[in-house]
Request: fold
Amino acid sequence: MIKLYFGNKQTFVWNPEDACTLRKKYHIVGSLVGRYPIKPFQTQNKWLPFQLMPEETKLLIDKDIAQLISLLKENRRQQILEKADQIYEGKKRKYLENFKKRKKTKKNPEISDISKEEKTSQSKTSFVEEKSNSEKNSCNIKIEQLNNLKKDCKKIGNKDASETIENSCDSEPINIDKNTIIEAELAKITGVSKELCRVQLFTECPWKHKTLPVILNYPSTEREKIRCAVYKDLWEKDYYITAGSKFGGDFLAYQGDPLKYHALFIVVCMCEEQTLQGYDLVVYGRLGHQVKKTVILASLDEEGQVDYVTVDWEGEMT
Reply:
């Protein structure tokens, strides 16, 4: 089954083989909206992805030709919040290890330099020191005071007092705020800037990803229902159908592939309560005569069947 990817309220086909199958076998034309790989900065030639109209998507789903899915979007913020406890324990463990190493360095003056790995680890955990609460700050002040007092005791030769102070320093509690750590991790999440974006060849990813089935909420209005019914009826009559906005209609109907044939009809969908004035007929007639196409007014009858009325300009246009 062909996979249709739904994103940003649009339907796309990313697989080139599926795009060819839709065009050759099922008469689904769609439109290429991606950049041309050879000349990515020009706008005349397009490439994958293959964008479908809502009517094309609805038809493929109803005929069980394709399945509408969406990729499971990774939410980095949600992942951090779910693993908050693990992140907190890891950061706390690293901080305590670095704290012990700093104490060792102070006790042994011969060790003057810290290895590069330790420096990197210290830089990663430095935000904990900067954003800790007032209790931790006061704790650090107490530790420094105790260390100074311990040195003074060693100078005067009082070993018992020095050992007592050292034990009290080791047992001093260290407070690390969990919320501060999580907020710092969330602050690292930033969007990709325009300068960092590269031109890519849009095609279906070869690796498997988790996907979610999507329910298409279309058609929802009377006009959308008429458009779907008209599109389905023309498709079942083996016409190729494209968007007709460039000629002032809803659809353009082709006898064959649009790459080989010109459009035969400009299809205009009419709602049941929509009024049609005389000048509207003149406009549609002159339009069809000017572009050498037949304008068709399509509507639904009481039984839900599609009715067609052609508007053609006879004689010379003055």
Observations:
- The first helix runs from residue 16 to 24.
- The chain is about 45% helix and 20% strand.
